[in-house]
Amino acid sequence: MNVGALLLRCAQQWPDQPALIDARDGSALTFTQLASRAFGLGHALRADGLDEQERVAILGDNTPEYLLWDYGVMAAGLVRVPLDPALSAEEQAAQLTDAQARMLAYGEDYAERARALAARVPGLKLRPLAADNPTMPLPAALPGPQAMASLNYTGGSTGAPKAVVITHGSLTSALQNIVLARGQGPGDVMLNMRPLWPIAAIIVLAQLAAGGAVVLAGRFQPRRFLELLAHHRATSTSLVPTHLARLLKETCPADYDLSALRSIDVGAAAIPPEIFEAAIEAFGPRFGVLYGLTEASWTCYQPPQALADPTTRAQAMRSVGRPLFGCEVRIESDGQPAPAGVEGEVLIRGAHVAAGYWKQPELSAQVFRGGWFHTGDLGVLDESGILRITGRLKEVIRTGGKSVLPDEVERALCSHPAVADAAAAGLPDPEWGEVIGAAVVLNEGARIEAETLVEHCRQSLSGFKKPRIIRFVTSIPRSHYGKIQRAKVRALLAERGPS
Fold it and tell me: Do 32 and 63 fall into the same domain?
């Protein structure tokens, strides 16, 4: 299957049902209109001289126009390259150059940036997302499962560009897994206030593939988010940890009619336990917990029902569920499969796994070896097949010949009432190999000495695990998903000089 065939099937099965709803004005596109406009755009792009498998970049916000380009590009046999609007012009230009993009489609808020990028990237054509295009009943191409559908850049905020190759086969296989896991269908409504550029936006296409409608509501605003959930009688939505934290701080969910809401899908690995507990208290046990990466989206899923029993809730909050129908997960320790309950690297296999990294055959061979994708995540599988993520293999701090997980240090620091947030990282040291450094955000109005925090950590950590360097900062560098950006933390600690 490919994206064009998927859209065509949706239009045939639910022709007059709403597919995309624009929260700005309440307008809607039916499945027939969505498919025919996406197909028309694809035909126009091919007529504009773009050949099959050439790359088209997209820079925009959470709007129907974005998705028409997103789906129209892939349905024409072209390759979409979604850009993170938060990156600098230099970083975006590096990705465009690496992808050899022929065209950049941009939203109206990004016109100035688009012109700056065109000046940096020779031969780059510019097109506005809002451009009017003819409608067509059929896609311009029906690429095979091995054809590229998307290049998704990961880790693009630091270092050289690294793009994950998503094929039509891996994309549609992931969609099948998500549809089976989420239980959404015709008549169900999903509210989306998340950016559409990350791989996480695959949940939007999965909602459409199941016959459900998607409300596109722009950038996240806590009160408007709850108002739209109630107004559209949304049955599902998707959030990142920073969204949850803002909702709990700025709103009272009990003030809104959320009776239709069945699931709020989150990636739990990055959610601080205290925020997760408060979110369940505020919204009820409505959280679906997922685990996936750009290279293997939606590999595991834990449905909201797993949080319903208070006696097992604490354990469920630390888990990411079982592998989905088309996914295999195993834990490997010292190069061998690990038994249940033993920590090791998480390996993933399945048709949803990406084809590799764009123009990086050596890295692809290393990470996608033996038929398994080596995630770099540390985890444990219990005897019932439920996965718990415990950390990042590459983030393990090696100090004095011993291993320390950064989150151990972070939990110890955050247990102090003066600390709002913390991030730990290893810093090079000639004697110890690495020493433990930590960036710490204090609660508003709080004051504390670094030495006091170190002594506090001694209460719950072995001596070799306590931080030796503490820097007070205003915020912790985090990705869109809420994950700590360790490279930026290390740079932050290093640039402030020795303790």
Answer: yes
